[in-house]
């Protein structure tokens, strides 16, 4: 069970408005908006390279900072992108990658940016209307942002700020800050959409078509001082297989022992050692429902109160298939097998090779704010948000840890039998803040000062128990339980100063106090141990600076620099799941925070109907937080142990070229694209993978040297539009010592080049139909798991 948080810190509560009001009373908000604007519907305008939003639904990013901000609008998404999930909106933005494996991917769709790979989910920040969606309970593939709390139909615009250059955000912003702004109507409106999806998937001995559907509806209106918006979405998705049980050929011995089987597929692992692929695992059938209500009330033309309630539920079944067949053609799931005269005596098949999983998740999100937007000398905002795991249950067949089941294999397990239950109910986070804006000389003055107080709190609780029926049984004997709490309390200020004509600077700092407490690990089933960890309390200062100069009417140059301190997450500190003598993972409650200095230098050329940008960026990280293997921690000094470690120093240099243009070469033809070069190397590291020093000089994991995007969209007439998109990512490594030289296999990270198409027909604003194909060239590529093959999306949308 969860332990109590320290007094005043506040653990996330259930979905009651009273709980949210209690959070609001403490101090209030979500590290979001630096300023708001009027209610006119004016498009954003560019001044000194700074996006100044003067109306509509503005971004909450602090746009007065002269740094790189890219974005996409609702209209552009509808025209160019086969968007089945909210993260699809980021698909063609420079230097970004979301590791989305299938439609509705709820636990692995992490965000990668310029110098932060897909193994570093805690190095980016994702917000929706100022409410934190990033999951800072941990760092890695299983701690993806909660994308399901936003649907594509809600989105008004998405903006991305690259780098930790605003004092208004914590150190998790070191990679990028993503802000979703969702719809808030000015008059009655209604929308409905139906989508059908299909993916013919062929890999190894799998040759199957996986289908899905999605239905959504939304209504909204403004009546006097009240405005409201409600959105519903239902997704039923079949994803492709994601895992594959394997055996090294070297594990087999020449013998006639075991069950003779056929169907194994010969391949090579990431180190190019010969292996057999035995079947598939983790093929998800996912059913998701999303519901959201937003309310707003204008007390007067300059003061608005807003409330958001979001609910998301996910029911998933993970099912495996064995490729192995005995002499009678019956699938083999357990025991000693014999493949081509090689008997795998010491590596017999167990329930862990072909696990069955049932997931049930119900999460809730709330946000409450009160904001002034006078555009006078003072403006202010108080706000609060809660995100809670109301239900978070995974059931799996077998005994032992969920990752290493040793009994109750298929096919008997389909009817029940022993297993484990992992319960994360009550886990979640809350955010609190008070923000202000001071314009000493009024709205046209030389200074604009942002300042504020913020508090972000995270509570983790996870309990795994044995059960006599993994499908419907009650929890029994404890296997392990972990939990803990962290909190970050911050004050910040930054001054945007136009100190001379054509010159602007931003100077700021963020002072942070971080605490970690109530951390514990408890183990059972022969490994009885109970560890309580000491409370930690540390403080840091992160200065920020930026400068821009309008060199000419059509040429802008700007530079930004900022320090970021990324605190260890609760899971990194306390998330161990075993203490056995053969343990392969050990947590570390003494992890040091990750400290980064990041800078970028940019030139922007206005070409009339297009904008060309070139940016040089550099990031110097000390004590980088990474999962790696080292030797000598267990009594046997030759035993490798995987744990989160501090890496001494990682240095990244890169160059990014981006182009955006409308009506380029021909009327109706919009072109955009980017090319990014990145050199990211490990410079210092006391840890190692196999031998001391084997990571020094090696490339940072999951960061390719080259990546690129291209998007061409043509509006044929008022009704028809067509789009062709392309994405490229060069070779990269997943391991710190770069030993995974084969990326085109299970657990590898491969190069890829994919193309997408979309054709859309619109009858005014009343209804539209579109047909799209993702991965048109059917490129087979990997990021530990296989990405989707060629996929088809058919969409119908109506508006009233």
Question: How does this structure look, described?
Answer:
- It is a multi-pass membrane protein.
- Belongs to the TonB-dependent receptor family.
- Pfam families: Plug, TonB_dep_Rec_b-barrel.
- It is found in: Cell outer membrane.
- GO terms for molecular function: siderophore uptake transmembrane transporter activity.
- This protein has 800 residues and is mainly beta.
- It has one domain: TonB-dependent receptor, beta-barrel domain (Maltoporin, Chain A), CATH 2.40.170.
- Helix content is 3%, strand content 53%.
- The chain is built from three helices and 43 strands.
- It has a 25-stranded mixed β-sheet that branches. Strands 3-8-9-6-7 form a five-stranded mixed β-sheet.
- The longest helix is centred in the first third of the chain and has 10 residues.
- The N terminus is likely disordered.
- Output the number of helix runs: 3
Query: Sheet with the most strands?
Result: 25 strands, mixed
Q: Span between N and C termini?
A: 48 Å
Name the CATH class.
Mainly Beta
Alpha carbon gyration radius: 26 Å
Domain TonB-dependent receptor-like beta-barrel: 355-776
Keywords: Cell outer membrane, Ion transport, Membrane, Receptor, Signal, TonB box, Transmembrane, Transmembrane beta strand, Transport
InterPro entries: Beta-barrel_TonB, Beta-barrel_TonB_sf, Plug_dom, Plug_dom_sf, TonB-dep_rcpt-like
GO biological process, one term: siderophore transmembrane transport
